[in-house]
Every structure is written in structure tokens, then in C-alpha cells.
Amino acid sequence: MTVLAAEPLLTPVYEYPKSLTHVPTHYCPGCTHGVAHRLIAEVIDEMGIRQDTIGVASVGCSVFSYRYFATDFAQAAHGRAPAMATGVKRANPDKIVFTYQGDGDLASIGAAEILHAAVRGENFTVFFLNNAIYGMTGGQMAPTTLAGQKTSSSPDGRDPATTGAPLRMSELLAQVDGAAYVVRRSLHDVVQIRRAKKAIRRALEVQRQGLGFSMVELLSSCPTNWGLEPTAALAFIRDEMVPVFPLGDFKLPAEPAAAAGAAAGTGARA
Amino acid sequence: MKGTVTVDDALCKGCALCIPVCPKGLLRVASERFNARGVHPAELDDPAELCTGCEMCAIACPEAAITVYRAVKA
Ligand SMILES: Cc1ncc(C[n+]2csc(CCOP(=O)(O)OP(=O)(O)O)c2C)c(N)n1
Ligand code: SF4
Ligand code: SF4
Ligand code: SF4
Ligand SMILES: [Mg+2]
């Protein structure tokens, strides 16, 4: 631990996470992909699993996330991170495996892969960054784009009559028996960021306990393609996205009621 | 002094997300200088040593550019 020389009593309480590399990220200023990276890295540090974690990057703005995490990493074809993570986890059941996917990647081209990974109850964790747009390719409409939202491929605003309504992946996947933990959080303010971090921790704990598929959806900003300043982009999440993508817990692992009951039956519990 | 922060110039992208979250309004954009990225970085402006080391700015920062220090009893 480094202590400021001039102030020997000042001790760092927050430092750059060890599970992030020092490679400069290419994310736009104020993009909350960076916040999500930070939180995941902090949790990996706190759980002491840096040497035991394997990430799977997707295609989208986070395509280079394998450069930014100081853990082992693979990089999958567009939408196929859950398929690759299936193989990685099955071959390395003692490792903690996660995918990091955008909404275009997960909800559009990769809709089949994510659904069937959940159906099979694959025991890895998905971090799903929903910014309601295809960020990397220039801000086209995604399945998650809000009704009326202007994008480069819906210049007059998304028209649900011809292009459908925003797809809520967490609610959809929570219906699947194989899904153990599915929640939605947001990155738009300090309180929400703290909640998001707790969910990231819980998801990785669910995986460590072998309980099955886990996913944390994170509402995230794209200041560049939304055409908003970074602070205004956070307000857009709060005011426009959260009403359409409500925050909450859609699937939680069954309480260990059976275990508790069994323990009570043996008189092991007071 | 209860706490203080440093902003890593090499990491800061000048997005200013840290500025409105400080409960004491202690962070500013250094509009008179540029960092190596060519942006005006954020910096602490705390002559009265009001920073509590609450970590709010660091939690908001997408670049993990802010290190937070707190005074601890020796
Ligand atoms: C097979 C294939 N089809 C299309 C593309 C083009 N493409 C690259 S990224 C992307 C969408 C990314 O959007 P999202 O997953 O939401 O990530 P974001 O950039 O918004 O974080 C698309 C369609 C591709 N790379 N490969
Ligand atoms: S295009 Fe959007 S999602 Fe991609 S890095 Fe820039 S702000 Fe973030
Ligand atoms: S640690 Fe708290 S008080 Fe100090 S600069 Fe950051 S937000 Fe302000
Ligand atoms: S939030 Fe981080 S990157 Fe943005 S201005 Fe503040 S210190 Fe710089
Ligand atoms: Mg996206």
C-alpha cells in the first residue's frame, strides 16, 4: 500500500483495480462501459479470483475488453460469446467464466445463443450492457431501442408498428428454468452503481456455488451515438430507459429452504 | 484533513462525470491545461481541505482515474 509521503496518515481507500490492465481504453469520454469494467474488476479483486477467471469478449464497443481486464480472456464471434463460454466453462469447471456483451450482440444476432445457454443452465455469468443502440457501428437501431428513439437507421424515431417494441431480455430469460440469477441494474448514478456492483458480486457467487446461469443486465450510456453530453446521457438512462427497462430482480436462486429444513430436521440448527 | 483525492492525468478523459457527484463541489475541470490525451482533465480544488474521502467521485469515474485517500488514526 502506498502512502502519500507528505501526509503519512493518508491511506488509499480507493485505488485502480488490479484486475484492470493499464492499456488505455478506446471508450468515448463518459461512456459507462468503463464503469462496468471497473466494477467487474473490483469484484474480481475482492473475491481474490483474478488467476481463476476467464472472460469472453463479444463484438461491439467492448470487442477489445480482453485487453482491459487483467484476467485470461477469449474473444468470440458476434453474438456467440455464450456458446464459447459454454465450452470454456465445461472444459474448466473450476474457473469463473463470464461473458461481456452489448445489446446488439446479445439481443439481436446472439439471441439464440443466450437463450439456449440459459435453457441448458450453463454455469457461467453474463454481463449484459444495454445501451439501446449499436454503438460500435455508428448508432443503428437495436432490438432494445426505445419507441420513438432516433438512431442512424431510424432517423424519424423507432416505429413499433413496423419494427416492434423494445425487447426486455432479463424478463425473457428469467422465464427459463435453467436461469438461476437474472437481474437488471443501472449505471446512471452513484447509488445505482453501488447496487450494480453488489449484483455483479452475487452473480459470480451464484456461479461459484454452481447454481446455474446468471446474468446482470446493466443499463449503460452511449453519449456519442445518443448525441448527448455524458451527464445528459446518464439522465437519459434514468428518465427514458428505466421506465421501459425497470430495475429489479427477475430470478433469484431458490432460498436454501430445503437445506435449512433438512438441517432443522436433524436438530442441527438452534 | 479527513481525506483527499488524486486524478491520474494519464487516465482522465475529461468527461466531467465526477464533478456533479462531489457533495462538496470540490472537483473542477482544469480548463487552463490539457493532458496528453488532449483533454482538460478533472482536478481537486480543495484549499480548505474539505474532502472527506467519501469515494463518490471515484465511484462515478468510468476510467478509474481517481484515487481516494482517507486519514486514519495512527
Ligand atoms: C457477423 C457480424 N455481423 C455484424 C457485425 C457488425 N457489428 C459490429 S458491432 C455490432 C453491434 C454492436 O452493438 P452492441 O452489441 O449493442 O454493442 P455496443 O457497441 O453498443 O456496446 C454489429 C452489428 C459484425 N461485426 N459481425
Ligand atoms: S460509441 Fe457509445 S458505447 Fe461505444 S464507446 Fe462510444 S459512447 Fe461507449
Ligand atoms: S472523495 Fe468525496 S468529498 Fe472528496 S472529492 Fe471525491 S466526492 Fe468530493
Ligand atoms: S469522471 Fe474520471 S475521467 Fe471523467 S473527468 Fe472525472 S476523473 Fe476524469
Ligand atoms: Mg449497444
Overview of the structural elements:
The complex is a heterodimer of chains A (270) and B (74). Chain A is α/β, with parallel strands linked by helices and 270 residues long. Chain A has one domain: Thiamin diphosphate (ThDP)-binding fold, Pyr/PP domains (Rossmann fold). Helices cover 38% and strands 17% of the residues of chain A. Chain A has eleven helices and eight strands. Chain A has helices at 33-47, 65-68, 81-91, 103-109, 111-119, 160-163, 169-174, 190-208, 223-226, 230-244, 257-265; strands spanning 10-14, 53-57, 72-75, 96-102, 125-130, 179-186, 213-219, 248-251. In chain A, α2 (65-68) links the parallel β2 (53-57) and β3 (72-75). The radius of gyration of chain A is 19 Å and the shape is globular. Chain A starts with 9 loop residues before the first strand and ends in a 5-residue tail after the last helix. With 74 residues, chain B is an alpha+beta fold. Chain B has one domain (3-70): Alpha-Beta Plaits, CATH 3.30.70. The two termini of chain B are 14 Å apart. The interface between A and B is medium-sized, with 33 and 33 residues. β1 of chain A pairs antiparallel with β4 (66-71) of chain B. The complex binds thiamine diphosphate, iron/sulfur cluster (SF4) (3 copies) and magnesium ion. Residues 3, 5, 22, 24, 26-27, 44, 51-57, 68 of chain B line the site of one iron/sulfur cluster.
